[in-house]
Amino acid sequence: MTLSHTELAQQTRVITEDIVDRSAIQAGQIFVLGLSSSEVAGGVIGQASSLEIGEIIVQTILEVLTPRGIYLAVQGCEHLNRALVVEEDVALVKNLEIVNVLPSLHAGGSGQLAAFKYMTHPVEVEEVVAHAGLDIGDTSIGMHVKRVQVPLRPIQRELGGAHVTALASRPKLIGGARAEYQQDPIRKF
């Protein structure tokens, strides 16, 4: 499925706003993005990377997150051990391990290149503990989302040719038969 730039940005915005609203993510927390622009373009992950698609998606997600005070972390591919691009101040405040690598289209991917373009002081970090995230193209973001992970089905399950999934997280339920719990802000039960 081929989308115009406007359609791609609009659909990305709808999906991102849906997940941000339902995940209960707060200002000061990290939202992780896994992105296969190849899949969005209708191809196979890692085979048809598109800088243009990466730029549209990352720029749109930043437009949703930044006014809410939510930090974006853009996951790279396995060639960079799934390192992530974040703003340098986020890495410093959250004590994240900064690593020395620059992404390319086929080592890191289009999302990371776009993050380097649109972030003020981008750096690569080894890992994050995000509170929620969006996976566009089955890139497997789970290693960067804190436990307990709660799968969310986005309002729209495809973006172009890519399958879209999402994760949120909630505190662990501890205790036993006598324990009582606060209301779950994600599932609302």
From TrEMBL:
Organism domain of life: Bacteria
Transmembrane segments: none
UniProt name for this protein: UPF0340 protein ACFORF_03465
Organism, scientific name: Streptococcus caprae
InterPro entries: Antibiotic_NAT-like (IPR028345), DUF436 (IPR006340)
Family stated for the protein in its record: Belongs to the UPF0340 family.
